[in-house]
Amino acid sequence: MINESNLLNRREAMKRAVLGAGVVAVGAMGASASAMAAGMSGNPGNLLPPGASTLQELSNRLAKAPRRRDFKTVPMILTSPDQWDSEALNEVLHYAGGPKQVWDNTVLKSPWLNLMRNAMNCQIWSFKHADFFCASATHGSAHLALYDNYIWNKYLATLTKGKWKANAWLKQPPASATNPADFEDAEGVFSPHDNSIIVLQRRGAVFLACHNEVWELTMGLHNKGINPSKLSHVEMAAEFTNHLIPGAILTPGIVGTLPELELAGFQYAK
Questions:
Q1: What digits encode the pLDDT tens for the residues 158-185?
Q2: Residues 32, 55 within the same domain
Q3: Which of 25, 143, 187, 221 could form a disulfide with 213 if both were Cys (CB 3.0 to 4.6 A apart)?
Q4: φ and ψ of 213, to 5 deg
Q5: Same domain assignment for residues 5 and 59
Q6: Cα dist. 250→37, 133, 153, 246, 270 in Å?
Q7: For the segment 81-97, what is each residue's pLDDT rounded down to a tens digit?
Q8: Do 73 and 122 fall into the same domain?
Q9: Residues facing 249 on adjacent strands
């Protein structure tokens, strides 16, 4: 004979197990949503030179600053700081160290990463400015390097007619694994063999993204019929924004942000 009390206890245990699983699932969904809302802020730089304490502090703060990447739609003109990475951008604008340089990078196939690397090497080891801060004001075709491989697979491989099937500018070459203490290594981490966005980020550089470029690129894709999910323009612009690379800092527009950077003491380079 089945003990009624035991049966009730089993039913209650099963009920609680199901409810518990539901709570865990909801919690996981909530955590996932929170992570998406925060965006991927990147990691603190781990290739900073000795003595770069101010740059290290900035790098740590930028790694914690939220990047909103859960947009459903975005407008043509951003009018509120919650529409771009305002907290991270403010950290950049108020950087207390120096010197500070901003590169106006517009051409994907130009030596833009190499020039940033050379500037950092010269400032750090030639002029002994360990806290030198290098920023990329990225727009034009160079902005294609600031999208993750989801966007490259879905749109940009087609746009570039298969010339690039993934984001080659994110790859860390073998030189990135060499000993950073040997900064004179001609094939090492600070050499021309190691031009990579991720490596420059690890050295403390930041890459500023451009909302206007997002808007105009997605408008062009619409006009070309490259729209596999049949999204509206405002939805596609949101999708591209949500898939900026980790660590990128979205601005409301690079050409409008450059004056803010210069007012904050950044030296312009092209």
A1: 999 888 889 999 999 999 999 999 999 9
A2: no
A3: 143
A4: -65, -40
A5: no
A6: 14, 18, 21, 11, 20
A7: 999 999 999 999 999 99
A8: yes
A9: 208
Q: Edge-to-edge strand order for the sheet containing 206-210?
A: 249-251, 206-210, 133-138, 100-105, 267-269
Q: Which domain holds residue 135?
A: 40-269
CA–CA separation, 246 vs 40, rounded Å? 5
Predicted TM-score (pTM) of the model is: 0.85
What is residue 40's predicted lDDT score, i.e. its pLDDT? 58
* 212 within 8 A of 255, measured Cβ to Cβ: yes
Question: What's the total number of domains in the chain?
Answer: 2
| CA–CA gap between residue 241 and residue 39 (Å, rounded) | 10
